[in-house]
Amino acid sequence: PWEQEYPTNITDTLEDGYILFGRFNRRGTLFAAGCQDGRCLVYDVDTKGIARNLLGHVKPIASVRQVNKEIISWKCRAWSRNGRYLLSGSKDWTCIVWDLVTATKRTKVRFDTPVMMAQMHPKKNDEFAVALFQEQAVLVQVQEDGKYTCRNIPLDIPEEANAYVTSLSWNKPGTRLYLGTSKGHLNIVDLAADKVVYSTKITSTPIKGIQWSHDGRHIIVNANDRTLRLYHVAQPEAVPELQNKFQDLVNRVQWNRACFSADGEFVCAGSGHKAEHNVYIWDKKMGNLVKILEGPNEPLDDVTWHPEQPMIATVSSYGNVYLWTTKTEENWSAFAPDFTELEENLEYDEQEDEFDVGPETDSKRNHEDDENEAVDVVTCEKIKFLDSDSEDEDHLFCLPQLPMDDDDVATYDTAPPKKKIKAA
Description:
The chain has 424 residues and is mainly beta. It has one domain: Methylamine Dehydrogenase, Chain H (7 Propeller). The chain is built from one helix and 29 strands. The strands form six sheets. Strands 6, 7, 8, 9, 10, 11, 12, 13 and 14 form a nine-stranded mixed beta sheet that branches. The protein has a four-stranded antiparallel beta sheet with strand order 1-29-28-27, with no helix packed on it. A four-stranded antiparallel beta sheet has the order 2-3-4-5, with no helix packed on it. Strand 12 and strand 13 (138-142) form a beta hairpin. Mean pLDDT is 81; it is low at 63-74 and 408-424.
Protein backbone atom coordinates (compact mmCIF):
# COMPACT_ATOMS: atom_id res chain seq x y z
CA PRO A 1 0.00 0.00 0.00
CA TRP A 2 3.01 2.33 0.31
CA GLU A 3 4.54 4.19 -2.59
CA GLN A 4 8.06 3.37 -1.35
CA GLU A 5 9.06 0.38 0.76
CA TYR A 6 11.76 2.05 2.83
CA PRO A 7 12.19 5.59 4.21
CA THR A 8 14.54 8.19 2.77
CA ASN A 9 14.37 11.38 4.84
CA ILE A 10 14.29 12.58 8.44
CA THR A 11 10.93 14.24 9.01
CA ASP A 12 10.63 14.51 12.81
CA THR A 13 12.82 14.62 15.90
CA LEU A 14 11.86 13.56 19.42
CA GLU A 15 13.71 15.50 22.09
CA ASP A 16 13.12 15.20 25.81
CA GLY A 17 16.09 14.56 28.03
CA TYR A 18 18.84 12.13 27.08
CA ILE A 19 17.23 9.18 25.26
CA LEU A 20 19.31 6.00 24.95
CA PHE A 21 17.06 3.66 22.94
CA GLY A 22 13.48 3.22 21.76
CA ARG A 23 10.96 0.62 20.57
CA PHE A 24 7.55 0.71 18.86
CA ASN A 25 4.65 -1.26 20.27
CA ARG A 26 3.08 -4.10 18.29
CA ARG A 27 0.85 -1.83 16.19
CA GLY A 28 3.25 1.09 15.94
CA THR A 29 0.93 3.60 17.60
CA LEU A 30 3.21 4.18 20.61
CA PHE A 31 6.96 4.55 20.97
CA ALA A 32 8.74 3.78 24.25
CA ALA A 33 12.13 5.32 25.04
CA GLY A 34 14.59 4.78 27.88
CA CYS A 35 16.51 7.75 29.28
CA GLN A 36 19.82 8.38 30.96
CA ASP A 37 18.12 9.64 34.16
CA GLY A 38 16.12 6.41 34.61
CA ARG A 39 12.85 7.58 33.08
CA CYS A 40 10.69 5.67 30.59
CA LEU A 41 8.97 7.90 28.06
CA VAL A 42 6.03 6.76 25.93
CA TYR A 43 5.34 8.88 22.85
CA ASP A 44 2.22 9.00 20.71
CA VAL A 45 3.50 8.32 17.19
CA ASP A 46 0.80 10.42 15.50
CA THR A 47 1.04 13.55 17.65
CA LYS A 48 4.72 13.11 18.66
CA GLY A 49 3.65 14.08 22.18
CA ILE A 50 4.55 12.37 25.47
CA ALA A 51 1.71 10.14 26.67
CA ARG A 52 3.50 8.70 29.72
CA ASN A 53 6.52 9.83 31.74
CA LEU A 54 7.42 6.97 34.08
CA LEU A 55 10.00 7.24 36.84
CA GLY A 56 10.94 4.12 38.74
CA HIS A 57 14.66 3.53 38.20
CA VAL A 58 17.57 5.31 39.83
CA LYS A 59 20.07 4.55 37.06
CA PRO A 60 20.00 4.68 33.24
CA ILE A 61 17.52 2.42 31.48
CA ALA A 62 20.03 1.34 28.82
CA SER A 63 23.57 2.03 27.73
CA VAL A 64 26.47 0.58 25.81
CA ARG A 65 29.33 -0.44 28.04
CA GLN A 66 32.78 -1.90 27.41
CA VAL A 67 33.37 -5.05 29.43
CA ASN A 68 36.65 -6.97 29.17
CA LYS A 69 37.49 -5.08 25.95
CA GLU A 70 34.31 -6.41 24.33
CA ILE A 71 31.37 -4.17 23.53
CA ILE A 72 28.27 -5.56 25.21
CA SER A 73 24.86 -4.04 24.64
CA TRP A 74 22.91 -3.48 27.86
CA LYS A 75 19.35 -2.98 26.75
CA CYS A 76 16.09 -3.95 28.36
CA ARG A 77 12.85 -3.21 26.63
CA ALA A 78 9.68 -5.01 25.68
CA TRP A 79 6.02 -4.41 25.06
CA SER A 80 3.41 -6.92 26.09
CA ARG A 81 1.28 -8.43 23.35
CA ASN A 82 -1.81 -6.38 24.24
CA GLY A 83 0.23 -3.17 24.47
CA ARG A 84 -0.89 -2.39 28.01
CA TYR A 85 2.26 -3.43 29.86
CA LEU A 86 5.79 -2.16 29.35
CA LEU A 87 8.91 -3.90 30.64
CA SER A 88 11.89 -1.75 31.58
CA GLY A 89 15.27 -2.80 32.91
CA SER A 90 18.06 -0.70 34.35
CA LYS A 91 21.64 -0.78 35.56
CA ASP A 92 20.23 -0.56 39.08
CA TRP A 93 19.75 -4.36 38.81
CA THR A 94 15.94 -4.15 38.60
CA CYS A 95 13.17 -4.82 36.08
CA ILE A 96 9.79 -3.08 36.29
CA VAL A 97 6.55 -4.07 34.57
CA TRP A 98 4.47 -0.91 34.06
CA ASP A 99 0.70 -0.73 33.62
CA LEU A 100 0.40 2.07 31.08
CA VAL A 101 -3.33 2.58 31.55
CA THR A 102 -2.90 3.61 35.19
CA ALA A 103 0.82 4.58 34.93
CA THR A 104 1.65 2.40 37.94
CA LYS A 105 4.04 -0.43 38.64
CA ARG A 106 2.56 -3.87 38.24
CA THR A 107 5.64 -5.49 39.74
CA LYS A 108 9.31 -4.78 40.39
CA VAL A 109 11.97 -7.51 40.36
CA ARG A 110 15.45 -7.03 41.80
CA PHE A 111 18.33 -9.31 40.80
CA ASP A 112 21.78 -9.93 42.27
CA THR A 113 23.65 -8.80 39.15
CA PRO A 114 23.14 -6.13 36.47
CA VAL A 115 20.43 -6.75 33.90
CA MET A 116 21.80 -7.10 30.37
CA MET A 117 18.61 -7.78 28.45
CA ALA A 118 14.93 -8.53 29.06
CA GLN A 119 12.09 -9.44 26.75
CA MET A 120 8.37 -10.04 27.20
CA HIS A 121 6.70 -13.28 26.13
CA PRO A 122 5.15 -12.84 22.65
CA LYS A 123 1.83 -14.41 23.72
CA LYS A 124 1.59 -14.06 27.50
CA ASN A 125 1.33 -10.63 29.11
CA ASP A 126 2.60 -11.85 32.48
CA GLU A 127 5.88 -13.57 31.60
CA PHE A 128 9.31 -12.32 30.54
CA ALA A 129 12.91 -13.56 30.25
CA VAL A 130 15.98 -11.77 31.60
CA ALA A 131 19.67 -12.12 30.72
CA LEU A 132 21.93 -11.30 33.68
CA PHE A 133 25.58 -10.25 33.58
CA GLN A 134 27.81 -13.31 34.01
CA GLU A 135 24.90 -15.29 35.45
CA GLN A 136 22.29 -17.75 34.23
CA ALA A 137 19.28 -16.33 32.39
CA VAL A 138 16.02 -16.19 34.35
CA LEU A 139 12.36 -16.69 33.44
CA VAL A 140 9.96 -14.50 35.48
CA GLN A 141 6.22 -15.10 35.83
CA VAL A 142 4.08 -12.30 37.27
CA GLN A 143 0.90 -13.11 39.20
CA GLU A 144 -2.31 -11.10 39.44
CA ASP A 145 -1.45 -9.65 42.85
CA GLY A 146 1.93 -8.37 41.63
CA LYS A 147 3.99 -11.18 43.13
CA TYR A 148 6.34 -13.13 40.91
CA THR A 149 8.25 -16.39 40.61
CA CYS A 150 11.66 -16.93 38.99
CA ARG A 151 13.33 -20.00 37.55
CA ASN A 152 16.65 -20.45 35.80
CA ILE A 153 16.80 -21.06 32.08
CA PRO A 154 19.07 -24.07 31.34
CA LEU A 155 22.40 -23.59 29.59
CA ASP A 156 24.00 -26.96 30.28
CA ILE A 157 26.53 -27.09 27.43
CA PRO A 158 30.01 -28.45 28.35
CA GLU A 159 31.81 -25.94 26.13
CA GLU A 160 29.87 -23.12 27.77
CA ALA A 161 31.33 -23.51 31.25
CA ASN A 162 32.57 -19.93 31.48
CA ALA A 163 29.99 -18.40 29.14
CA TYR A 164 26.90 -16.40 29.97
CA VAL A 165 23.89 -15.19 28.01
CA THR A 166 24.41 -11.83 26.29
CA SER A 167 21.23 -11.77 24.20
CA LEU A 168 17.94 -13.63 24.04
CA SER A 169 14.78 -13.68 21.96
CA TRP A 170 11.52 -15.66 21.90
CA ASN A 171 10.31 -17.43 18.81
CA LYS A 172 6.92 -16.34 17.51
CA PRO A 173 4.77 -18.97 19.34
CA GLY A 174 6.74 -18.37 22.54
CA THR A 175 7.64 -22.05 22.98
CA ARG A 176 11.39 -21.64 22.62
CA LEU A 177 14.06 -19.18 23.64
CA TYR A 178 17.03 -18.37 21.39
CA LEU A 179 20.07 -17.51 23.50
CA GLY A 180 23.28 -15.88 22.32
CA THR A 181 26.31 -16.30 24.57
CA SER A 182 29.55 -14.46 25.25
CA LYS A 183 31.47 -17.27 23.50
CA GLY A 184 29.55 -16.96 20.23
CA HIS A 185 27.18 -19.92 20.70
CA LEU A 186 23.55 -19.87 19.58
CA ASN A 187 21.47 -22.08 21.87
CA ILE A 188 17.79 -22.99 21.58
CA VAL A 189 15.95 -23.83 24.80
CA ASP A 190 12.64 -25.70 24.81
CA LEU A 191 10.84 -24.30 27.86
CA ALA A 192 8.27 -27.10 28.04
CA ALA A 193 11.02 -29.71 28.22
CA ASP A 194 13.29 -27.34 30.18
CA LYS A 195 16.42 -28.27 28.21
CA VAL A 196 18.70 -27.12 25.41
CA VAL A 197 17.54 -28.78 22.18
CA TYR A 198 20.06 -27.20 19.79
CA SER A 199 23.43 -25.50 20.07
CA THR A 200 25.95 -24.29 17.52
CA LYS A 201 28.93 -21.98 17.53
CA ILE A 202 28.57 -19.32 14.85
CA THR A 203 31.40 -17.01 15.88
CA SER A 204 34.15 -16.61 18.47
CA THR A 205 32.87 -13.21 19.64
CA PRO A 206 29.85 -12.34 21.82
CA ILE A 207 26.40 -12.27 20.22
CA LYS A 208 24.87 -8.83 20.75
CA GLY A 209 21.38 -9.31 19.39
CA ILE A 210 18.84 -11.76 17.92
CA GLN A 211 15.90 -10.29 15.99
CA TRP A 212 12.92 -12.07 14.40
CA SER A 213 10.93 -11.15 11.32
CA HIS A 214 7.19 -10.61 11.65
CA ASP A 215 6.35 -13.92 10.00
CA GLY A 216 8.53 -15.81 12.50
CA ARG A 217 10.56 -17.58 9.79
CA HIS A 218 13.77 -15.56 9.75
CA ILE A 219 16.21 -14.33 12.37
CA ILE A 220 19.10 -11.92 12.11
CA VAL A 221 22.02 -12.49 14.49
CA ASN A 222 24.32 -9.58 15.30
CA ALA A 223 27.76 -10.44 16.72
CA ASN A 224 30.92 -8.52 17.52
CA ASP A 225 32.72 -9.84 14.44
CA ARG A 226 31.12 -7.10 12.26
CA THR A 227 28.91 -9.62 10.42
CA LEU A 228 25.13 -9.97 10.37
CA ARG A 229 23.90 -13.53 9.81
CA LEU A 230 20.48 -14.28 8.36
CA TYR A 231 18.92 -17.63 9.31
CA HIS A 232 15.80 -19.30 7.97
CA VAL A 233 13.53 -21.18 10.39
CA ALA A 234 10.93 -23.13 8.43
CA GLN A 235 8.91 -24.27 11.46
CA PRO A 236 8.90 -23.26 15.15
CA GLU A 237 10.64 -26.57 16.03
CA ALA A 238 13.00 -26.52 13.04
CA VAL A 239 16.76 -25.93 13.18
CA PRO A 240 17.86 -22.55 11.83
CA GLU A 241 19.68 -22.66 8.50
CA LEU A 242 22.18 -20.00 7.46
CA GLN A 243 20.82 -18.14 4.44
CA ASN A 244 22.94 -15.02 4.00
CA LYS A 245 25.55 -12.71 5.55
CA PHE A 246 25.66 -8.92 5.56
CA GLN A 247 28.73 -6.79 6.25
CA ASP A 248 30.57 -3.66 5.17
CA LEU A 249 33.68 -5.03 3.46
CA VAL A 250 35.14 -1.56 2.89
CA ASN A 251 34.80 0.19 6.25
CA ARG A 252 34.46 -2.93 8.42
CA VAL A 253 32.13 -1.15 10.86
CA GLN A 254 30.40 -2.66 13.87
CA TRP A 255 26.61 -2.91 13.86
CA ASN A 256 24.90 -1.51 16.95
CA ARG A 257 21.59 -3.17 16.11
CA ALA A 258 19.87 -4.95 13.22
CA CYS A 259 16.18 -5.52 12.49
CA PHE A 260 13.72 -6.42 9.73
CA SER A 261 11.40 -4.15 7.81
CA ALA A 262 7.65 -4.23 8.37
CA ASP A 263 7.06 -6.64 5.46
CA GLY A 264 10.23 -8.63 6.19
CA GLU A 265 11.72 -7.98 2.75
CA PHE A 266 14.61 -5.82 3.97
CA VAL A 267 17.29 -6.06 6.64
CA CYS A 268 18.19 -2.84 8.40
CA ALA A 269 21.28 -2.16 10.54
CA GLY A 270 22.71 0.87 12.31
CA SER A 271 26.39 1.64 11.85
CA GLY A 272 28.57 1.74 14.94
CA HIS A 273 31.04 4.24 13.48
CA LYS A 274 31.74 7.09 15.91
CA ALA A 275 31.72 9.80 13.23
CA GLU A 276 28.56 8.93 11.28
CA HIS A 277 24.85 8.33 11.68
CA ASN A 278 24.24 5.85 8.87
CA VAL A 279 21.57 3.20 8.40
CA TYR A 280 22.22 0.36 5.95
CA ILE A 281 19.32 -1.38 4.18
CA TRP A 282 19.80 -4.70 2.33
CA ASP A 283 17.45 -6.81 0.26
CA LYS A 284 16.84 -9.94 2.29
CA LYS A 285 16.58 -12.37 -0.63
CA MET A 286 19.22 -10.99 -2.99
CA GLY A 287 21.62 -9.82 -0.29
CA ASN A 288 22.53 -6.61 -2.14
CA LEU A 289 22.78 -3.22 -0.47
CA VAL A 290 19.73 -1.17 -1.42
CA LYS A 291 20.20 2.12 0.41
CA ILE A 292 22.41 3.93 2.91
CA LEU A 293 20.57 6.56 4.93
CA GLU A 294 22.94 9.31 6.05
CA GLY A 295 21.86 11.27 9.10
CA PRO A 296 23.37 14.11 11.13
CA ASN A 297 26.94 14.11 12.40
CA GLU A 298 26.01 12.24 15.56
CA PRO A 299 27.00 8.63 16.39
CA LEU A 300 24.14 6.15 16.06
CA ASP A 301 23.31 4.03 19.11
CA ASP A 302 20.02 2.31 18.22
CA VAL A 303 17.67 1.70 15.29
CA THR A 304 14.20 0.16 14.99
CA TRP A 305 11.66 -0.23 12.17
CA HIS A 306 7.95 0.60 12.45
CA PRO A 307 5.85 -2.63 12.46
CA GLU A 308 3.44 -1.40 9.77
CA GLN A 309 4.84 1.59 7.90
CA PRO A 310 8.08 2.39 6.05
CA MET A 311 9.33 4.35 9.06
CA ILE A 312 12.61 4.01 10.97
CA ALA A 313 13.51 5.49 14.34
CA THR A 314 17.19 6.04 15.14
CA VAL A 315 18.74 7.19 18.41
CA SER A 316 21.93 9.23 18.45
CA SER A 317 24.60 9.40 21.13
CA TYR A 318 23.37 12.93 21.90
CA GLY A 319 20.04 11.58 23.16
CA ASN A 320 17.90 12.54 20.15
CA VAL A 321 15.42 10.31 18.30
CA TYR A 322 15.14 10.82 14.54
CA LEU A 323 12.13 9.54 12.59
CA TRP A 324 12.80 8.57 8.97
CA THR A 325 9.82 8.39 6.60
CA THR A 326 9.11 8.41 2.88
CA LYS A 327 8.60 11.56 0.85
CA THR A 328 4.99 11.51 -0.34
CA GLU A 329 3.89 13.56 -3.35
CA GLU A 330 0.23 14.51 -3.67
CA ASN A 331 -1.49 13.29 -6.81
CA TRP A 332 -5.03 14.62 -6.94
CA SER A 333 -5.63 13.22 -10.40
CA ALA A 334 -5.77 9.75 -8.80
CA PHE A 335 -9.06 10.80 -7.13
CA ALA A 336 -10.45 12.90 -9.97
CA PRO A 337 -9.20 11.97 -13.47
CA ASP A 338 -10.33 15.32 -14.89
CA PHE A 339 -8.34 17.27 -12.29
CA THR A 340 -5.64 19.50 -13.77
CA GLU A 341 -2.75 20.86 -11.74
CA LEU A 342 -1.94 24.52 -12.23
CA GLU A 343 1.49 26.10 -11.98
CA GLU A 344 -0.06 29.53 -11.23
CA ASN A 345 -3.46 31.09 -10.64
CA LEU A 346 -5.65 31.44 -13.73
CA GLU A 347 -8.89 33.33 -14.27
CA TYR A 348 -11.74 30.89 -14.74
CA ASP A 349 -13.89 31.26 -17.85
CA GLU A 350 -17.44 30.03 -17.38
CA GLN A 351 -18.94 28.13 -20.26
CA GLU A 352 -22.27 29.26 -21.63
CA ASP A 353 -24.24 26.12 -20.72
CA GLU A 354 -22.19 25.05 -17.68
CA PHE A 355 -24.84 25.81 -15.05
CA ASP A 356 -27.95 25.28 -17.18
CA VAL A 357 -30.58 22.99 -15.70
CA GLY A 358 -31.10 20.09 -18.05
CA PRO A 359 -33.61 17.25 -18.16
CA GLU A 360 -33.15 14.48 -15.58
CA THR A 361 -31.65 11.41 -17.18
CA ASP A 362 -31.54 7.78 -16.10
CA SER A 363 -27.82 7.97 -15.33
CA LYS A 364 -28.40 10.95 -13.05
CA ARG A 365 -31.18 9.13 -11.20
CA ASN A 366 -28.98 6.06 -10.75
CA HIS A 367 -26.18 8.27 -9.45
CA GLU A 368 -28.51 9.81 -6.85
CA ASP A 369 -29.64 6.33 -5.78
CA ASP A 370 -26.04 5.31 -5.23
CA GLU A 371 -25.45 8.36 -3.07
CA ASN A 372 -28.38 7.41 -0.83
CA GLU A 373 -26.77 4.07 0.13
CA ALA A 374 -25.38 3.86 3.66
CA VAL A 375 -21.60 3.71 3.89
CA ASP A 376 -19.91 2.10 6.90
CA VAL A 377 -17.10 4.38 8.06
CA VAL A 378 -16.83 2.96 11.58
CA THR A 379 -15.76 -0.65 11.06
CA CYS A 380 -12.00 -1.09 10.68
CA GLU A 381 -10.53 -4.15 9.01
CA LYS A 382 -7.53 -5.79 10.62
CA ILE A 383 -4.16 -5.87 8.93
CA LYS A 384 -3.83 -9.53 8.05
CA PHE A 385 -0.07 -9.90 8.04
CA LEU A 386 0.11 -8.86 11.70
CA ASP A 387 -2.53 -11.32 12.90
CA SER A 388 -1.07 -14.28 14.74
CA ASP A 389 -2.94 -17.55 14.21
CA SER A 390 -6.16 -15.57 13.66
CA GLU A 391 -6.33 -14.74 17.35
CA ASP A 392 -8.89 -12.15 18.35
CA GLU A 393 -7.37 -10.09 21.14
CA ASP A 394 -7.93 -6.54 22.29
CA HIS A 395 -4.96 -4.26 21.79
CA LEU A 396 -4.20 -0.92 23.38
CA PHE A 397 -3.86 1.62 20.56
CA CYS A 398 -3.73 4.84 22.56
CA LEU A 399 -3.35 5.83 26.21
CA PRO A 400 -6.04 7.64 28.19
CA GLN A 401 -5.22 11.02 29.64
CA LEU A 402 -4.48 10.95 33.38
CA PRO A 403 -5.40 13.80 35.74
CA MET A 404 -2.24 15.50 36.99
CA ASP A 405 -1.35 18.64 38.89
CA ASP A 406 0.36 21.47 37.06
CA ASP A 407 3.53 21.10 39.10
CA ASP A 408 3.89 17.39 38.36
CA VAL A 409 6.84 16.80 36.01
CA ALA A 410 6.75 13.00 35.98
CA THR A 411 4.32 10.16 36.43
CA TYR A 412 5.45 8.12 39.41
CA ASP A 413 4.55 4.61 40.41
CA THR A 414 1.70 5.83 42.62
CA ALA A 415 -1.45 7.74 41.80
CA PRO A 416 -1.26 11.57 41.86
CA PRO A 417 -1.70 12.91 45.40
CA LYS A 418 -5.13 14.17 46.30
CA LYS A 419 -5.48 17.84 47.15
CA LYS A 420 -6.38 18.62 50.71
CA ILE A 421 -9.62 20.53 51.20
CA LYS A 422 -9.65 22.87 54.17
CA ALA A 423 -12.72 22.83 56.32
CA ALA A 424 -14.72 26.03 56.32
